[in-house]
Amino acid sequence: MRAKSFMAVKLLLIWVLSSLATVSTAHEVTPTIANLYVRDGQAVLELRLNAEAFLAGIDLDGVADTDEAEETDRYHALRILEAEALRPQVMAGMRGLLDGFTLLVDGTPLEMTFKDMTLNPAGNVDLPRASDLTFVAPMPDGAQDFQFRWAAGNGEIVLRQQGVDDPYTGYIEGGDASPVFPLAGGAAQLSGPQAFAEYVPVGFDHILPKGLDHILFVLGLFFLSPHLRPLLWQISAFTLAHTVTLAAGALGLVNVPASIVEPLIAASICWVAVENIIVDGKLHRWRPLVIFAFGLLHGLGFASVLGEFGLPQAQFIPALIGFNVGVELGQLTVIALAFLGVGVWFRGKTWYRQAIAMPASGVMALIGGYWVVERVFL
């Protein structure tokens, strides 16, 4: 029995650490953000992207973290370059960047040319760096509509039409294309159900595989007690809280800088993990209140991500609800996987808390504490 318990602990810790290995390096694959304008007779496309990942030739459709790619050494070599040293690398790879997308007007591809770039300093090389590239093309007379195609291997892109009423906003995966939408605005490309359905996977993706700090927090809730009722109380409090601040943030009613929110989210992980260790495995009355407070923080984190993507103004509420539903499905998937991996087999054992829940919580507390230090000082 003791041998089995120690084996369970070993497997659990390996699983937790391997799942979070990418977080400690934070080379997360982030979607490209594209803003599309028509100005002075020109189509203007502004791309905010991880230029180093594109230059390294990483297949962004197939990885969630740049450290998982075969080209990771090339990526790291580019990532450490300061902006002025990276600039000629971007110019040398410009043909490949231009080949990665096609903007069509009335079904005919425009000849896009590079206009300008803004490269941020190297900063913390363990974090992806966003670069801004601008491309332009003359607009033909009497043009009516746009379509945007995004090459396979480029990962995900959020395309946002700007400067018109009822603009198109779409979430496009590598190898896919947007629908045709009018360049004068009024796209109304999504009905309410379509907007809801399109933003569910966006929310889910922010939890699995990209929301590793949120995954860790949910696991902290799971490891408090082997019983279902305490977990339901905690998840309910967490869901209610982050729904409130997600909606408030998306509506622009609350705006807290990520430099404040992200360290506090890390601290919330550390708190629940330590509490799992020092309490007796029961749900005390203060725990749901604490989880509710932490849920407000996590909701602000979700809102900042959603703010980068943007929401279609014509279907703002269905898209917001869809994103939130996707987040909930991601959290429930994390809990289901935890039950399948650990709970089903061991939660009824007398040694479950000492051999599994407490060691796992200890690992999570250490990682959460490290992230606090990293996000504040590094």
Write a brief caption for the model.
With 378 residues, this protein is an alpha+beta fold.
Any descriptors?
single chain; 378 residues; alpha+beta; 2 domains; four-stranded antiparallel β-sheet; 12 helices; 10 strands; 54% helix; globular
Task: Please describe what this structure looks like.
- The protein is α+β, with helices and mostly antiparallel strands.
- The protein has 2 domains: 2-27 and 196-377, no CATH class; 32-189, no CATH class.
- It is built from 12 helices and 10 strands.
- The protein has helices at residues 2-25, 51-55, 72-79, 83-92, 94-98, 192-207, 212-222, 228-250, 258-278, 286-309, 316-346, 352-377, and strands at residues 32-39, 42-49, 101-105, 108-109, 113-119, 131-138, 145-150, 157-161, 169-172, 181-182.
- A 6-stranded mixed sheet has the order 5-6-2-1-8-9. Strands 4-3-7-10 form a 4-stranded antiparallel sheet, with no helix packed on it.
- The two termini are 44 Å apart.
Mean pLDDT: 85
Helix content estimate: 40-55%
Number of helices: 12
What is the succession of H and E elements? HEEHHHHEEEEEEEEHHHHHHH
Strand content: 5-15%
